[in-house]
Amino acid sequence: MEITDTIHLTNGEWPPFYSKNLPHYGLDSQIVAESFALVGVKVKYEFFPWARAYKFSEDNRWHGTVGWPLNKQHKDTHFYSNQPINTGNWVLFHRIDKPIFWENINDLKGLIFGVTIGDWVLDGENELVNNLKAQELTYIRVVSDESNFKMLLKGRIDIFPQQREVGIAQMRKLFNSKQREQLTFHPKSFQNMPLYLLLNKKNKNNKRYMDLYNKGFQKLQDSGRYQELLTSFAKQSN
């Protein structure tokens, strides 16, 4: 379809799903851009720290922002896409020499979790996250995912909860192969978090843009292209 319009969206760094340094700016960025293109809209991304990315959308400096979980506060200020862009599985990373075996939360008590300040993990609603929030599980908060992984490698924390593919990408960036061999993750997923496109309610054009996006996303699914992107991504991530 001929491109006749442009929408400006904020974005952030969360490779391999979002990054200014990746082809198409990452998988989820590509899904949003291709969905809009199917209805004649070009996407222009600008990258910021995530808190600022949301604030710039909320203040209507940009039309919207990509990659956010369901949140009542966000719903008050933004339109949500009908369907999530993607849904990620969150797992528990740990050292090989300190394996974890868990069927329920009681199996994790006494272990030290690392949680990143401002991370999405605490936006979830599940038993593990609720126990972290209630401080029934022991955790410390640090400024970055990178710091958590370094602390995990040194044995200063026992568990780092992270989205599976994001955690693998972060380890590849941070550590050499010998260091990576010391870390792994438990195969059991504790959280599946859908991430959505948000368009602010202050912009008078955004209801129309969201309607267009929803149509484009449905076209992407119906054509098989959406599944093609997910399958290609899964092969590259293994």
From TrEMBL:
Coiled coil: none annotated. Residues 10-233 form the Solute-binding protein family 3/N-terminal domain. The keyword Signal applies. SUPFAM superfamilies: Periplasmic binding protein-like II. Keywords: Signal. Pfam families: SBP_bac_3. Belongs to the bacterial solute-binding protein 3 family. This is Transporter substrate-binding domain-containing protein. The lineage of its organism: Bacteria, Pseudomonadati, Pseudomonadota, Gammaproteobacteria, Alteromonadales.
